[in-house]
Specification:
The protein has 107 residues and is mostly helical. It has one domain. Helix 2 crosses helix 6. The model has no long low-confidence stretch (mean pLDDT 84).
Length: 107
């Protein structure tokens, strides 16, 4: 099934809930302390840079100023990280999600 078909079928779901691994990673980030959230945000942004994924600064600015209602919009770094995560290819989203889960489940 194509991504757009999945989105049509599940338009009431949040974009990160389309994959259980990513949903778990985001849930763990939500419940984590702010320092751990920041570490995860840095990881996401670094992965995006490593794979030459970029978002023009004005688009990040627009997204941050427009939404600012989601839990991750309370912090600019988190908001930017989620914009990068959202546009990553699915395989990279999955890889990053697994790294976040591993990082946050460490004692």
């Amino acid at each position: 099934m194509s991504y757009s078909k999945v989105m049509e079928t599940n338009f009431n779901q949040r974009w990160y809930d389309l994959d259980p691994t990513m949903s778990l990673a985001v849930s763990l980030m939500h419940d984590a302390k702010s320092d751990k959230q920041s570490e995860c945000a840095k990881l996401i942004i670094q992965k995006a840079k490593d794979f030459n994924i970029s978002i023009p600064q004005n688009k990040l600015e627009e997204a941050f100023n427009y939404f600012c209602k989601r839990w991750y919009d309370k912090d600019r770094e988190l908001a930017d990280a989620f914009q990068y995560l959202k546009i990553m290819p699915f395989e990279l989203q999955k890889e990053v999600s697994l790294e976040i889960i591993e990082k946050l489940e460490q004692k």
